[in-house]
Design a protein that fits this description.
- It is built from 4 helices and 20 strands.
- By secondary structure, it is mainly β.
- The chain folds into 2 domains: 63 residues; 294 residues, no CATH class.
- A 6-stranded antiparallel sheet has the order 12-13-14-15-20-19, with no helix packed on it.
């Protein structure tokens, strides 16, 4: 059982494990427990963990200063942005797993059933920017905008959507972002998708970034809020309509309390955070709504198959070892998945989820 005290600087992890288990600390200290014993681990910063059946590996991140949020309505300066996450050993130089809110948040924590499935089937827990990463920059400079949403489908199946998106120039200017979906259907079968969704060509103008004055744009599209349209959009909601591969999910994402206002010139200076314009509402984009639909008829197969992360082509079937050099990633569809599909009113059978919630983060700054 994990207990996180997000209101203090101490995180406590309570674990009950069998006698043969050992807990490995960042300083490579080992603790062996007898059946029924419990270990309490104190960490003055952020404690991350990978928990297996017989062993738990914990890392206590180095202490960093929490920056102060820039006054609202003022362009974000370099000193107002968050401190990069401390490296986790073996992660390639960045934190690659979910952690409790600090100066940014990652939405919902992955559920235990999804973590266990990932460990058993993929050899690791749920990570950010793993096989599905659209580029090395996802964790190097975009760690803060990995988000998770936990909810249920219309049929009642459990779903965890881990995506990469943020309402700021750096993320609006990227066409492809990574995602993963873990779905446990009502029969208990678990299905898994990973890849890149397409948020549209980042060229400026209504085709990619329409404003809210009757413009609709061409999907995939991001409906943005700028200084002119903000007064007519007091909830300050930015909406993403993304295309994933033809064999995967269609996604919609609404970020209310968008962290920055859109500017037609932001593509050229997106990497310079001193040019970002904070939204007047001073929010951190913590109210979000996710909407996804999957049509089982698109992939009339079950089990493992491989498909390219930026293409609709299915490269191979029947194996999670994908052909080298094709860029294909392993996917898995449980045989019981299709039973959760429901008619969408137009004669199509789909599995659909709608998740809307707030993700509290009292110390969040931009980017989040």
């Amino acid at each position: 059982m994990r207990l996180w005290n997000t209101g203090a600087v101490v995180a406590v992890l309570l674990i009950v494990v069998p006698a043969w288990a050992s807990i490995v600390y960042a300083a490579n200290r080992n603790v062996n427990l007898a059946p029924g014993e419990m270990a309490t681990v104190n960490c003055p910063s952020v404690l991350s963990a990978v928990i297996g059946q017989n062993q738990a590996s914990l890392v206590c991140a180095a202490l960093t200063l929490t920056p102060t949020r820039t006054p609202t309505g003022v362009p974000v300066t370099a000193t107002a942005t968050n401190v990069p996450p401390t490296s986790t050993p073996g992660s390639g130089g960045a934190v690659t797993t979910w952690h409790p809110p600090t100066d940014h948040e990652h939405g919902d924590q992955p559920p235990t059933w999804a973590e266990i499935w990932s460990q058993q089937q993929l050899g690791h827990g749920i990570v950010f920017g793993g096989d599905e990463a659209s580029s090395p920059a996802e964790n190097a400079i975009k760690h803060n905008v990995f988000k998770g949403m936990l909810g249920a489908s219309e049929a009642g199946g459990a779903l965890y959507w881990r995506y990469h998106a943020g309402s700021n120039p750096l993320d609006r200017s990227a066409q492809y972002h990574s995602y993963e979906v873990y779905y446990k259907d009502t029969s208990g079968g678990i299905s898994f998708w990973q890849g890149h969704y397409d948020a549209g060509d980042p060229a400026p103008g209504p085709a990619r970034f329409p404003r809210r004055l009757g413009e609709t744009g061409t999907r995939p599209v991001i409906l943005v809020v700028d200084a002119q349209t903000y007064p007519n959009n007091p909830s300050n909601c930015e909406q993403w309509y993304m295309f994933s591969q033809g064999w995967s999910w269609d996604f919609g994402l609404t970020i209310c309390g968008s962290t920055t206002l859109y500017s037609t010139s932001e593509n050229a200076t997106a990497s310079d955070q001193s040019t970002w314009i904070l939204s007047p509402d001073g929010n951190a984009g913590v109210h979000r709504r996710g909407d996804g639909s999957f049509y089982p008829s698109r992939v009339p197969i079950t089990g493992w198959f491989c498909s390219g992360p930026k293409t609709s082509a299915i490269v191979s079937t029947g194996d999670k070892t994908c052909p080298v050099g094709t860029g294909a990633l392993p996917q898995f569809l449980a045989p019981s998945l299709a039973a959760d599909a429901r008619n969408d009113g137009f004669g199509n059978e789909r599995i659909r989820f709608v998740i809307e919630k707030d993700f509290p983060c009292t110390a969040c700054v931009v980017p989040n």
